Amino acid sequence: MAAWLTSDMPSDTLVGLDLGQSLPFVDRGAFFPGWERSPPDARALWRLVDALCARDPHLAACSFVDHADAAEHFRRHGGRKGRWFEGRGRLRATEQAQRLQGLNPYSNLNLVGAAQVGKSSLTGMRVLHRIGAELPIWPIDPAPRSGSCVVEIYTSIAAIAAGRTKGRTKIRDGAALDSALAALGSEPFGHDGPIDDHRSDALLTAAWLRAHARRAELWNPPTLTPDIARTEGWTFGVT
């Protein structure tokens, strides 16, 4: 994927990645309190994850999760909970804002359960580390005046904008997907019968990005500060 994004992707593309750009920082002034190697910002976090996982195939992040110091901050399978992991896990500022919008975010430090995004976020950081020198990644980088840009997405935002209720954001039927696409001003996908929600999420969120990419307020959330941007990033569409 990294090679396609930097070499083969059409120009002027807004890329939405369904993962966390970073981990919680601002609540405690550090990603990993008590660890002397705790990075100062998101890009340094990506470098650290990639360096500790250099031998993990397919851009996996197993070595980072199992690192003695990092593991103290994660909830892992088998009932393993680091001493720094409390409750449902720390949240980034953007995830706190998601809650205020009625969404149900999970901590990126939680690596257990079907709804968690912690694992994909850590592996995604290895991708971000590879593409970050060639593609702006908002809001860690400023939004460019032209050219392509990468943003973090939350697929439920697109589904709700298309008329789905908060408890029914996953679409598993072709006709329902076409109705949601029509609500966003897009042509039907034309699939008859069942469809997996990974495909429907991708299609619907792409349609939503196309419809809303030029809304200035989405690029300027009122609670997004420069310090939050450089350490935690943000989810596009969260205001």
Description:
This protein has 239 residues and is mainly alpha-helical. It has one domain. Helices cover 35% and strands 5% of the residues. It has 9 helices and 4 strands. It has helices at 2-8, 42-52, 62-65, 93-100, 118-131, 155-161, 174-183, 197-212, 226-231; strands at 14-17, 75-76, 80-81, 149-152. A two-stranded parallel ribbon has the order 1-4. It has a two-stranded antiparallel ribbon with strand order 2-3. Helix 1 (2-8) runs parallel beside helix 5 (118-131) and helix 6 (155-161) packs across helix 8. The relative contact order is 0.18. The mean pLDDT is 95.
Please render the helix and strand layout as text.
Elements (H helix, E strand, L loop, with lengths): L1 H7 L5 E4 L24 H11 L9 H4 L9 E2 L3 E2 L11 H8 L17 H14 L17 E4 L2 H7 L12 H10 L13 H16 L13 H6 L8
Helix pairs in contact: 1-5, 2-5, 6-8, 7-8
Largest sheet: 2 strands, parallel
Say how many strands there are: 4
By secondary-structure content and strand pairing, the structural class works out as mainly alpha
What is the overall silhouette? Answer: globular
- Please state how the strands of the largest beta sheet are arranged side by side: 1-4
Total number of helices:
9
Number of domains: 1
Order of helices and strands: HEHHEEHHEHHHH
Mean pLDDT: 95
Nearest-angstrom radius of gyration? Answer: 18 Å
